[in-house]
Amino acid sequence: MKLLRYGIFVISFFLISTITSAQEFEVPKNVSFEKAEDYAPYNKDIIAGMQWLETASIAENEDKAEAFSAFFLLWATGTPEITIEAQAYQLDLCEKNPTLLTVIFGGWAKYALENPAQKNNKLACNVAAISSALKVYKNNVGKVMVKDKRLEKLLKKSPKELEAWISKRIK
Predict the structure, then answer these.
(1) Cys bridge to 52: 4, 25, 68, 159, which one at CB 3.0-4.6 A?
(2) Banded model confidence at residue 20, pLDDT cuts 50, 70, 90
(3) Rounded to two decimals, what is the model's pTM?
């Protein structure tokens, strides 16, 4: 019984600290990327920013979400560590909610940074990317995002079904 209580305490502590750290994320300011070495120190901010974005209400944090998107795009266009591949199906999924495209790219980047050995695994990166977009969509639909039947169908898929759906669409 003590072990069960201890396990619940540890899990609760981990969840609370994860949620708190995600809420406390601050977008880096006055960033300058002049050479290849300038990008790596911000990798942790990309991961933290995506964790925040995946749980945030964009309607309540529009300025912060826009600031993070601008920071992310600046970082993504020059980082030598990873390459994000845009796919036609990703663009199609963002037709009604264009802001999700940045989220898709951010989900890809977050996964690649957290799993460096998998950074060239197109399927794994795409699954992570779409999973991030679905989290953001689910948290913001009806607020700053409009309902999209395609995304609603993807939300209902199991992780294996989502992976199979994506694998048919990547090139």
Answers:
(1) 25
(2) very low
(3) 0.86
* pLDDT of the residue at 12: 40
Q: Phi/psi of residue 147, each to 5°?
A: -65, 135
HEC assignment per residue over 110-148? HHHHHCHHHCCCHHHHHHHHHHHHHHHHHHHECCCECCC
* Predicted confidence (pLDDT) per residue in 35-59, tens digit: 999 999 999 999 999 999 999 999 9
pLDDT recorded at residue 44: 98
Q: Which range marks the domain in which residue 126 is found?
A: 2-167
* DSSP secondary structure of 65-122: HHHHHHHHHHHHTT-SS--PPP-HHHHHHTSS-TTHHHHHHHHHHHHHHH-GGGTT-H
Q: Residue 78: count other Cβ atoms within 10 Å of its Cβ.
A: 13
Neighbouring C-beta atoms of residue 33, cutoff 10 Å:
14
- Rounded Cα distance between 131 and 80, Å, is 24
What tokens appear for 46 in the block?
Answer: 């990309």
Residue 9: per-residue pLDDT: 41
**Cβ–Cβ < 8 Å for 112, 119:** yes
